[in-house]
Amino acid sequence: MDLTHRPRRLRKDGIRTLVSETSLEPSDFIAPVFVDATTDERVAIDSMPGHERVPLEEAVPRVEEVRETGVEAVMLFGIPESKDRAGTRAWADDGVVQAATRRITAETDTYVITDACLCEYTDHGHCGPLEADVLGGENGHECHDHGLTVDNDATLEALEKIAVSQADAGADMIAPSGMMDGMVGAIRGALDESGHTDVPVMSYAAKYQSAFYGPFRDAADGAPSFGDRRHYQMDPGNRREALREVALDVEEGADVLMVKPALPYLDIVSDLRREFDHPIAAYNVSGEYAMLHAASEKGWLDLEATALESLLSIKRAGADLILTYFAEDIARKISS
Ligand code: PBG
Asked: Which residues are catalytic?
């Protein structure tokens, strides 16, 4: 046997950690937090075991729980007290995300990222005002070819108001998730004009129309009441298009580029890592969380081991930041 090359030499205890290429830190994670203006108690989210919607009063305690694990950043999602056609509660000064942001930034050092989107605030659950409404057409009219679709440019005006109201409330970073054309440029312009030149934008730059968002839509009560999001979110089959889509956000001034979901789209994470120098974020979404929990409840998978391996793979593919519902559990695990 003449084996010069034996990769196993470096897999022994003592050396394997020295040659390890990827490691996870609690500071890699952003924990999603749901603040719900319709409740005065914490409400468990059935499809996302361990996660809850918390009332405004509990926003600070909830964030303190996150910080105790070593995770330093949260992504805030809001469930408003009421919804309407245009989603006006999304940019209200006393809106649920704005109010929670004020409390959290006043009472803690947490880095607060706010989701800038309309789907939790519109009564139809889409990520912007509908064309039929903007054009003054008949509500509910559905054309066979196009269906009811979101009016892109009218949505940009709403997103500008949302971003400024969130930054006014003290948000450290704005994360638009609606996949509207021009959203990053519109938000950058509005933030700059209102004096928030230092507030960065993390764009959901390559967000796919995915079936993995199901549990989140229960959590945030943001499922579309008809149709789906294929007219604005990306087609899962498209890889080259992601580079074009993301290049636009870069031109428009995005500071951080996100891919979403994470595990089924690691090729996209890896493409972006190679193509751009920006920090890359990946969103390990609700369905990715729910499926590991479901399999582990059946005794088919080891929850902690598969979660850890998933997050490690997302980082190995090229993500610098990971949004994940596992943030607290895995941060606790890796620092113990
Ligand atoms: C809303 C939004 C969604 C998620 C984050 N922001 C849902 C969607 O686009 O339908 C999904 C997050 C998750 O599944 O964890 N624009």
From this structure: 207, 260
